[in-house]
Amino acid sequence: VKSSTFASVWAEFDASLAQKLAETRVTDEEARLTSNCLQELMLVAPDLGQGWGVRAFGSTCNGFARHGSDLDATCCRASSMDLPEPFLPDLLEDMARLLEEKPNFTIVEKVMSARIPILRMKFKQALDVDLSLQNIEPLPNTQLLRSYVSLDASIRDLGVLVKLWAHVAGVCGAPNGHLSAYSFTLMVIYFLQVDPDLRLPVLPTTLFDGSPTTPPHPHSWRCGLSMAQMLGRFFIFFAEQFQWGSEVVSIRTGRRLSASDDSFSELRGRFASRLHVEDPFLLHRNLHCALHPEKENELYTKLWEAAQAFRQGFLPVGLQSSPDTGHQIDVGMRMPMKEDRIAAPSGHFKQLSQPNCDEHGPVLAMQNASKEYHESGSESTRCTLDGPGEGEKASAPAAEDVPVTLLLKTWKL
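The chain above was modelled as a monomer; its predicted structure follows.
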């Protein structure tokens, strides 16, 4: 296979992903609707009493919003950030009564028994709104993620694509026992931080206090890979290289550390053999708390399948562009290769079996798959996308036998 063929396939992948991103962009009408909703909420909030206002958080203002995103907002009083929780349901009931008088708002549900009571509403019958009270914990997170997005647009794009994949694959949504969309965003940033060829800077969490403005920082970053290459590396990292059960997804440290490290002394459940995702501000909070064990097995399997999709020459589920775009990647279209095989270190080929997560769980499955993979080459290497590694010998098979997956290079962790 000639390098021109490699380039054309990557270009087609990138065109398909670009079209998918275009399909998921927030429209001007959606942006206006969100802005109008916030303005109306801000006019109502002072009726609760002096000092009350409204702050948006989550994807709407952290840069990771996509077409159809809802609005998360909270009524808060800056002069009383430690408002006693027992008062919150009563105050939220007061807010509901105020909003029921406004024709543009329709109360869909009152979730008063939750740790953080929420009003679920429709604004102009078009925008889903979740309104909480004095819920200030997400504000620093929103500010931090917005700062990461400001470094390079590719961070936002990769996050949106991964969350889109997670929704279509059925592995996203805390109410259903899956990881939250926020957890997937943290996984994306962590991957970009620890990938030795990408090295996204680690922004100090101490800079972020939840204020509406983005604090200045001295960091800059430019991505040198295409979106298809980054996406493929993301899936391969979490399916084959991430130490599932001991490593912690931590954008606060931005380093590959075990849960037993002193950096995670506050992290709940850190010695459990599970996926660990640290909240960068609430250091005790392990975001696997929402992930049911059987759903964790499913998540690992889906990550594995997505990694193998890239290796075998097609985009994972949910990431092909619409049929009428002209850039559709057929799920059955493989990159040129003689058989179903993937590239292993030192030019050897071995077909990897899918891990049996139902029987053994993701940790053991990952360990067995990793062992099987490295027995076909060097035990000290891992695979990733993007051309030959520095210092590698040209010991690959003849050009006509080389699958496109030899774009994968070895990298030592």
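The first helix runs from residue 3 to 24.
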